[in-house]
Write a structure and sequence with these properties.
By secondary structure, the protein is an alpha/beta fold. The protein has a single domain, classed as Maf protein (Alpha-Beta Complex), CATH 3.90.950. 32% of the residues lie in helices and 24% in strands. The protein contains five helices and seven strands; from the N terminus they run βαβαβαββββαα. Strands 2-1-3-4-5-6-7 form a seven-stranded mixed sheet. α4 crosses α5. The longest helix is centred in the C-terminal third of the chain and has 20 residues. It is globular and about 55 Å long. The N and C termini lie close together (6 Å).
Length: 201
């Protein structure tokens, strides 16, 4: 079975490929296709965005596709940035821009009220009549400063309190074992295996 990753984000490609490496599937990426789309994330929820991305890439390639949409939800900000996490600091913003804006928004908030969670929703479009969803989440706190060099996105300011480490301070394998995307992908692995068994592929 072939499975195309419905993303242009090289960090996500590396992470998803590493977590799914032992599945009996051939992972394809944007580099395997010409004119690979970059779907507009017009949904109002993570679920809607994941589905529309998976469906658009399936329609373009004809290959079962896997898409995710992820966000950080900060309690002190009423759940923001949430579905707008990737564009929090505006069009064309960088990871660093988003981190700076979030730290600025929380600069007067004490640590005990900086609780947050990462959520990841994965959509797998096996065909137009068969789209499956898997969700993962992890709770933590937003730090007061950037810490660590690993990972991407909000990883340098998201701490797992029990470990006193941000995701950016962990080696990739450790992060994958507990991250929102890692947890969602573990559920996605089950869905892919079930599909393989039913289809005889």
């Amino acid at each position: 079975m072939k499975l195309v990753l419905a993303t242009n984000n090289r960090h996500k490609i590396e992470e998803i490929t590493a977590i799914l490496k032992d599945l009996d599937v051939t992972i394809l990426t944007k580099d395997d296709f010409s004119d690979f789309p970059d779907p507009d994330e017009t949904g109002s929820t993570l679920e809607e965005n994941a589905i529309l991305k998976a469906r658009e890439i399936f329609d373009h390639t004809g290959v079962p596709s896997l898409a995710d949409d992820s966000g950080i939800e900060v309690d002190a900000l009423g759940g923001d940035p949430g579905v707008n996490s990737a564009r929090y600091a505006g069009p064309g913003c960088t990871f660093a821009d988003n981190n700076r804006k979030l730290l600025k928004a929380l600069e007067s908030v004490p640590r005990e009220k900086r609780t947050a969670r990462f959520r990841c929703v994965i959509a797998i479009c096996f065909d137009n009549d068969n789209i499956e969803l898997a969700e993962g989440r992890v709770d933590g706190v937003v730090t007061s400063e950037v810490r660590g060099k690993e990972g991407f996105g909000y990883d340098p300011i998201f701490e797992i309190p029990d470990l006193s480490l941000t995701f950016a301070e962990m080696p990739p394998e450790k992060k994958h074992s507990m991250s929102h995307r890692g947890r969602a992908l573990e559920k996605a692995r089950i869905l892919i295996r079930e599909y393989l068994e039913k289809s005889g592929k």
